[in-house]
């Protein structure tokens, strides 16, 4: 019997496969593949958990952002109301200030008018006294002049006070 190279290659292959089965290589390979599959499954589960956690955090941050925007809008609205109130108050105070200044100016004008009238009256009285004195000086003698002058001065003093 003549064996050619194909037969020896076949026998070598069978021996090799028998040796692999005897050394339990397929079990080791299967165990390694199972461990790798378990590891991949665990990684996928971890990735899924992390994704859900990320989605939860995203939803929470979006909720917080909306709350912050609402709070900011409230603050802006309150600031606008306060600014409007301050502007109204400033306008009212300005109007009151102008009214007080006008009243004070009118009061000063009236006082100046009164002082001017009194000054004119005083000047008129002085002029009248001087004129009366000259007229009496021409018409009356010394004793009559003195009596009339004293009476006139007393009357003018009583009227002015």
Explained architecture:
There is one protein chain. It is built from three helices and no strands. It is mainly α and 161 residues long. It has one domain (23-160). Helix 2 (25-139) packs antiparallel against helix 3. The radius of gyration is 62 Å and the shape is rod-shaped. The model has no long low-confidence stretch (mean pLDDT 89).
Brief summary:
GO terms for molecular function: proton-transporting ATP synthase activity, rotational mechanism; proton-transporting ATPase activity, rotational mechanism. This protein is mainly α and 161 residues long.
Looking at this protein, list some descriptive labels:
161 residues, mainly alpha, 94% helix, 0% strand, hydrogen ion transport, membrane, transport, ATP synthesis
- The proportion of residues forming helix, as a percent range, comes to over 70%
- Poorly predicted regions: none
Largest sheet geometry: none
Structural class: mainly alpha
* Rg (CA only): 62 Å
Distance between the termini: 171 Å
Strands, total number = 0
Query: Strand content of the residues, in percent?
Result: under 5%
How many domains in all?
1
- Count of helices? 3
Shape: rod-shaped
Order of helices and strands: HHH
Mean pLDDT: 89
């Amino acid at each position: 019997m003549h064996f050619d190279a194909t037969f020896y290659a076949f026998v070598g292959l069978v021996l090799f496969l028998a040796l692999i089965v005897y050394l339990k290589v397929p079990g080791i390979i299967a165990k390694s593949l199972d461990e790798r599959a378990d590891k991949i499954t665990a990684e996928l589960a971890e990735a899924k958990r992390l994704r859900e956690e990320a989605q939860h955090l995203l939803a929470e941050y979006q909720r917080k952002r909306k709350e912050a925007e609402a709070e900011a809008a409230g603050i802006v609205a309150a600031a606008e109301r306060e600014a409007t109130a301050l502007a109204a108050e400033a306008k009212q105070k300005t109007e009151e200030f102008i009214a007080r200044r006008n009243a004070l100016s009118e009061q000063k004008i009236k006082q100046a008018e009164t002082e001017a009238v009194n000054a004119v009256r005083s000047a008129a009285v002085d002029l009248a006294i001087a004129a009366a004195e000259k007229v009496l000086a021409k018409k009356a003698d010394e004793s009559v002049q003195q009596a009339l002058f004293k009476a006139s001065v007393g009357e003018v003093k009583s009227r002015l006070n």
